[in-house]
# Entry
Amino acid sequence: MPRPIFACISRSALSHNLEVVRRRLDAARPAGDSAKVWAVVKANAYGHGIERAVAGFRGADGLAMLDLAEAVRCREAGWQGPILLLEGIFEASDLEVVGRYGLTLAVHHADQLAWLAQAKAPRPIDVFAKLNTGMNRLGFTPAAYAGAYARLVELQRRGVLGQVGHMTHFSTADTEEGIAAQLDVFRRTTAGLPGPASLCNSAASLRYPEVAAAWARPGIALYGASPFADESAESLGLRPAMALKSRLIATQDLRAGDAVGYGGRYRAEGAMRIGVVACGYADGYPRHAPTGTPIVVAGVRTRLLGTVSMDMLAVDLTPVPHAQVGAPVTLWGDHGLSVDEVAAASGTIGYELLCALAPRVPVHFQE
Ligand SMILES: *Cc1c(COP(=O)(O)O)cnc(C)c1O
# Structure
């Protein structure tokens, strides 16, 4: 028998979450006017697998990611719609693959403009010019933007480019600060420049759907995790697309003072029973998860004890005295235990845990 850990990925949850975000966007628009959705599938679809994401997001208008190789995998999985490379190309020679697979590009710095000017593409390439509205990660400054846009329009006139749109990325859509300052820069800088716009990640799509413009770019919400620290995925109507599951492979009876795991970081206060779960940091479970992190054994919520090992972790069986070797364990994504709760207990965000699902964990892809 293989080691009992596995991840369940639900196609219907991916599709459901896409519809939830879509409904939220469309409710903020006049009837009959729909936002288009780039489903963001970067980082192997946030750990869920590109091919599974292609199956789950058949109803999306486009797919967005960073890696050329992932874009090619989308095409090979049968995706015929638009594909947006969120960081554009990394060198001029990437244009060959862009042309062959009909990819759409973000254009965020002057080198990319120069590479496009040399392009001999078989058909016009659609692009989104990226404006740095304050995140200071990618994009032309507001001062440089009109010039960059004019060069793209010139390339459009020469037939090198097709559609030329505008995009920016919000850094604080999930916090109190919100998007107002960045939105203001975007609107002032792009005023009067034609082309479709793409603004909103998950947090902005859900909190400010009225600013979404032509194309939204949700990621995390589509996988059923929350972009907000103070609002659960469940309360947003989202369903977890990934559940991480395993089983107990041992139990131990402890006496007061007995220590658990590397470093003896947990010590029993009295007699207690603990379970050992086949899941560790080499599976993608966070090593820094502290004692007390929630975990479900045989349907009952209990807690992690001591330091997470590479291949195992320990749980308190006090609330589940009947649990024996073989008892089912949910690390996240089922029985009301969200990946966001495990992430919060571990000082990180659901995104990091989903993306970190290790290749050695077998995946069951379910309807
Ligand atoms: C990752 C990413 C998104 C999606 O962000 P979420 O917070 O997962 O919704 C959108 N746009 C860009 C440019 C990104 O890098």
